[in-house]
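Before surveying the methods themselves, we first show a specimen of the format, giving the amino acid sequence and backbone structure tokens:

:::
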Amino acid sequence: MPLLAQPKVSAAQRSRTNEEVKQLLQEGRSLVNAGDYEGAIAIYQRAASIQPKNPTIFSGIGFLQARQGKLREALVSYRRAIALNPRSSDFYEAVGFIHGNLGDMKSAKEAYRKAVQLNRRNLNAYLGLGVTQSRLGDISSSKWAFQQAMEIDRNNGKTYEFMGAALKQQGKKTEASRLLQKARDLYTRRKDMDGVSRVEAMLRAI
């Protein structure tokens, strides 16, 4: 067909489509809040069928799949989101997290590296990079990543916790203990009792 003869989507049709997707996403969020992840995923998949080029919808599906422990399915969803928006640091960070939990540290490292290249202020990506580098035995790169995270936020308990855990793994108990105590103080100040419990368990093991 000649180009000009092809049917065009009117502004009114686009508006109706956007409104339908908006309602579906609101319904999906309500199901998430109620703990019905399967129902929410089904709703988001309906929204994706209406807007197949919306990367946020696929990342939302991936997030919920990861929460359910369906890591390989989540990886597929996040890769779809990245294909639609390859400039999202958050998407690569999520892929790094999934690879790490699947035990593929090399792929996790590459995803986290991409995440920090896209956003030099992505604290969680630096933390993930630090952890994966440590597990791969690249201590200097691990230390660099944690230092970058500390430059972004010196009062983040996770930075000190992860650095302490890495040093504990290396047998550097004195340095590890100092950092873990700092993490505990920060978690206590923020009333993060889960964080306090994790760190105290590591301190007892040193």
The longest helix spans residues 11-33.
